[in-house]
Amino acid sequence: MTFTNPVLPGTHPDPSICRVPGATRADGTVAPDDYYLVTSTFEYFPGLPVFHSHDLVTWTQVGHAIHRTEQVDLSTVPSSGGLYAATIRHHDGTFYVVTTLVHTQGQGGHLLVTATDPAGPWSDPVWLEGDGIDPSVFFDDSTGRVWLTATRLADPGEWEGQTEVWLRELDLAAGALVGPEHVLWRGALHGAVWAEGPHLYRVGDHYYLLASEGGTEHQHAVSVARADTVTGPYTGNPANPILTHRHLGRDFPVVGVGHADLVETAAGEWWTVLLGSRPYGGYFPNLGRETFLAPVVWEDGWPVVAPGVGHVAGGFPLPDVGARLPGVGSPAVVGQPAGVGAVVVHETFDGPGEGLDLAWNQVRTGDPFWSLTERPWHLRLPLLPATLSDVATPAFLGRRQQHADMDLTVRVDVDPAGPDEWAGLAVRQSEEAWIAAVVTRAASVAVPGGATVRPLGAVPGSVPGTVPGSVTGGREVLVVERFGGEEVVVGRAALGPLGLAEGPVDVVLHATGQEYALGVRTLRGFHAVATVHGGRLSSPEAGGFLGVWLGPYATGRGTTTATVADVECVEYRGR
């Protein structure tokens, strides 16, 4: 029986994991162990999602480590800044998450938050001194001491991009680093850049330092070193790197693997979680860096990843977690970890509850611009002045794209007062790379600003598109693409002739590989307004570290307006 990778599809990079042994029940039996995992989120809020699993394969989000605006200031963070790689650990009943906040005009650097319940609430941050990124906390049970490691640029470096892993003792009671600093590692290979993502472990009589190098793109690789004492000196594994896919070429199904963390099960098995990307339709990893799971064995005192296989792709036999868990081995679980197979998420906003589902994010701040109560059974979005092109918080709520083939429908009720009032859906990678399909009010000219209108793409089963320029001043739908600093209207259609002159509109995205068809649903079916190449939203094309988020979007395009957009439902359907 096997599972299918990735175990967390969509943008879930830099995974870190810990195990909490199961408690002994009143009847003397022992509950299954709990595993917790956290990933990076950069400029998105809430940040650092926390996931739970009993079997290492099926994961359920339980909260976020950053969930209050007063914890961190992301308001000035550009895309791919913000909350970098975090580490999660558990010790004596407390969970610890340490991360780095970068590229903010507010307080930044390394920060530590704690909780007794991984679902939260999490504490206000303790800010820790020290340079660089990718901090990790290590509890040395053999001595009772606690240590912090992180990565920074070497000064002086032997080559551009050389980094070093440093170590200092952490006094948890004082909330400060104490004692001397120790430089542990500058990378396994001469000339390799960005030895990062360090984690320390004690296995047997040795301390092990796991780190990745080569940059978090195609050249990514995992290396390991060991020492007799925590402060070193560390000696590299002669087999370094112990895992990489760079030699397999850009056509391999999974590329850029790295940034790994290790965990041991109650049965004595070792596993690693790590990031990787799945390009499709060319070297276009739209889904971002995802979380994968692979087995580890120890040979001659060194870890070996994916023994007998040597790479991470497809699946592996199910982990032995030391307990018979309900559902493990059933057809519903084997080969179908959460989110990998066909998935339908249909959200109808049918009550205020305690807020939105944990899968939703907004950009940069946690201030709730949206409402679930102003119009019952709807998500109300104001048409904020901010747009997706601004380093600000636009009225955009997104969830990760997790499938190459998927459909997104946003049913929106909006009566725009003019051509600068937009409401519909958006696919966001950054300020410089996004696509939107929006309901607006037609102006007196066919194409505002002389923007070009490219031909409509053919979509199976779609209604033929209208001719650009048939503008009557009624509502219309625009498809707009931004890439490379240019914002272009790539398609438009009047809604009146489609039977949508007033009332709610189903704005639709059909993604089939890199063909992103956007339009509206009518009584005759899907009406394609434009088709764009989704690969332009991938990090090799757009830059940065992120895959895409998609969801409802509304804007006044620089103008404050009283117009609101009411979203009746959102459906994400992974195929």
TrEMBL record:
<dbReference type="InterPro" id="IPR013320">
    <property type="entry name" value="ConA-like_dom_sf"/>
</dbReference>
<feature type="domain" description="Beta-xylosidase C-terminal Concanavalin A-like">
    <location>
        <begin position="348"/>
        <end position="442"/>
    </location>
</feature>
<dbReference type="InterPro" id="IPR023296">
    <property type="entry name" value="Glyco_hydro_beta-prop_sf"/>
</dbReference>
<keyword id="KW-0326">Glycosidase</keyword>
<dbReference type="InterPro" id="IPR051795">
    <property type="entry name" value="Glycosyl_Hydrlase_43"/>
</dbReference>
<keyword id="KW-0378">Hydrolase</keyword>
<dbReference type="Pfam" id="PF04616">
    <property type="entry name" value="Glyco_hydro_43"/>
</dbReference>
<comment type="similarity">
    <text>Belongs to the glycosyl hydrolase 43 family.</text>
</comment>
<dbReference type="InterPro" id="IPR006710">
    <property type="entry name" value="Glyco_hydro_43"/>
</dbReference>
<dbReference type="InterPro" id="IPR041542">
    <property type="entry name" value="GH43_C2"/>
</dbReference>
<dbReference type="GO" id="GO:0016787">
    <property type="term" value="F:hydrolase activity"/>
</dbReference>
<dbReference type="Pfam" id="PF17851">
    <property type="entry name" value="GH43_C2"/>
</dbReference>
<protein>
    <submittedName>
        <fullName>Glycoside hydrolase family 43 protein</fullName>
    </submittedName>
</protein>
